[in-house]
């Protein structure tokens, strides 16, 4: 586990928002850094168009269930308005509002952080994973000194 992994979580309510970018299917077990590097490299080829429509300068990596066993859909993109046009070859998806457990980690530690969250933290917490909302990463504005924020959709125990 990277030394600067922050297990001090925050619970945040996020309003729904839309992300425009490049989407690819990801097979469970194939979540290697090289695969995500390829998706983001494809995104970078379209960066001027996407940035021109973006509401902020942050980048989002969103994991949607695909409705197929052992497959998810990963969207690399930026936040856009709900009525933003969708250029050819790109996808715009809505991230529903809800409660998210938010963790911070360096970009090179994302895989290890996810493992720690889903294998150690979540089973021991008082929270349940909310499968109705996607897991997503929020990357800073091209500043590697700022950690990535991992958003895990949760259902809070109201008892």
Mind explaining what this structure looks like?
The protein is an alpha+beta fold. The chain folds into two domains: 1-16 and 97-159; 17-95, no CATH class. Helices cover 22% and strands 41% of the residues. The chain contains three helices and nine strands. It has helices at residues 33-45, 47-53, 110-124; strands at residues 6-14, 17-27, 59-65, 71-80, 91-95, 98-105, 128-129, 135-139, 148-155. Strands 1, 2, 3, 4, 5, 6, 7, 8 and 9 form a nine-stranded antiparallel beta sheet that branches. The radius of gyration is 15 Å and the shape is globular.
Keywords:
3 helices; alpha+beta; 9-stranded antiparallel beta sheet; globular; 9 strands; disordered N terminus; about 160 residues
Q: What is the structure about, briefly put?
A:
22% of the residues lie in helices and 41% in strands.
SSE blueprint:
Blueprint: E1 6-14, E2 17-27, H1 33-45, H2 47-53, E3 59-65, E4 71-80, E5 91-95, E6 98-105, H3 110-124, E7 128-129, E8 135-139, E9 148-155
């Amino acid at each position: 586990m990277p030394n600067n992994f922050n297990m001090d979580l925050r619970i945040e309510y996020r309003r729904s928002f839309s992300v425009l970018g490049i989407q690819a299917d990801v097979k469970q077990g194939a979540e290697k850094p090289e695969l995500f590097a390829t998706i983001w490299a494809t995104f970078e080829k379209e960066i001027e168009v996407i940035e021109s429509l973006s509401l902020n300068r942050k980048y989002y990596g969103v994991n949607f269930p695909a409705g197929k066993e052992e497959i998810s859909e990963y969207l690399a993109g930026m936040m856009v308005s709900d009525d933003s046009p969708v250029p050819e070859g790109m996808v715009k998806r809505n991230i529903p509002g809800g409660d998210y457990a938010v963790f911070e980690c360096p970009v090179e530690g994302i895989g290890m952080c996810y493992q720690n969250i889903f294998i150690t933290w979540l089973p021991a917490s008082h929270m349940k994973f909310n499968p109705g909302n996607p897991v997503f990463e929020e990357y800073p504005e091209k500043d590697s000194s700022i950690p990535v924020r991992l958003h895990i959709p949760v259902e809070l125990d109201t008892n």
